[in-house]
Amino acid sequence: MSTTISSINPNISSTRTYKDLDLNFTIHPIKKDINKKIGEYAIINSVKNLVSTNFYERPFRPQIGSGVRSLLFELVDTVVAAQIERAISEVLENFEPRVRVTRVVASPSPDENLYNIRMDFFIINNPNPISIDFFLERIR
Q: Which class does domain 16-55+65-137 fall in?
């Protein structure tokens, strides 16, 4: 999942600092430990992780997931794009209380057999909107 992030203002501080591990597992050059994602980047990391999670994939939490990966094996058209938009909105509404989604747009690209996704959302206690652009494609 390739991602382009826009509209992040690192100078805005909220009342809480969110932290998460870097899921690329890059090593900090000095500490020799896994890098951390802090603030907006930690929440964006969580959003991408929820979108790519299937149902029954997390132990003891089978209800967490979007089911988007199973939709990628359908024909690439506007009907499936609407289902992907709905699945992404529902998983974020149900399992990510730190964000308020304002828009999810899935644009089908049948020639490349993928969907271009554009998500706009607000982080709670942060007035600046965040936009994420990425694409979803089936691997096999």
A: alpha beta
